[in-house]
């Protein structure tokens, strides 16, 4: 009798393991589908966001700190490369890498999509100010290029990037969402 009970318990455990493995596979398939469908829209949002970010740093930052914040030049300076390579790396990160990372982490971020985009952009902002700016020779938290004014300009630029990234990823082209 004990052998039969043990065999039944073993069968139930195997069935539970199979169901759990199947559920995990289904969830992984759902995540892969989400990444595949949302990535193109997020990449378009990243492109629009990088253009907006660059425009803000080039044309709005001078009114705040007295000079433009040329991000491609900073990237080129970090790696000791020509300005064009700095621009390509800046675009590569903003259009391809960061949208992909956002697609992967968005389900772990709290709140509605707009809040998720702002949290993601805030993370990028923290890394930029804490790691990238010192590497570019601009001091920790932009201390050597304008201090708090430069930090606020970078913050505004990163928030614009995050909001545009999420808007395009969530709704496709905004004109489509305005027609609803």
Describe this protein's structure.
The protein is an all-alpha fold. The chain has one domain (38-178). It is built from 6 helices and no strands. The chain has helices spanning 2-65, 71-79, 83-105, 113-135, 148-171, 174-178. Helix 1 (2-65) packs across helix 5, helix 2 packs across helix 3 and helix 4 (113-135) packs across helix 5 (148-171). The chain starts with a helix and ends with a helix. The model has no long low-confidence stretch (mean pLDDT 81).
Q: What is the element layout, followed by pairings?
A:
Blueprint: H1 2-65, H2 71-79, H3 83-105, H4 113-135, H5 148-171, H6 174-178
Helix pairs in contact: 1-3, 1-5, 2-3, 4-5
Keywords:
6 helices, mainly alpha, single chain, 180 residues, 82% helix
Q: How would you briefly describe this protein structure?
A:
With 180 residues, the protein is an all-alpha fold. It has helices spanning 2-65, 71-79, 83-105, 113-135, 148-171, 174-178. The mean pLDDT is 81.
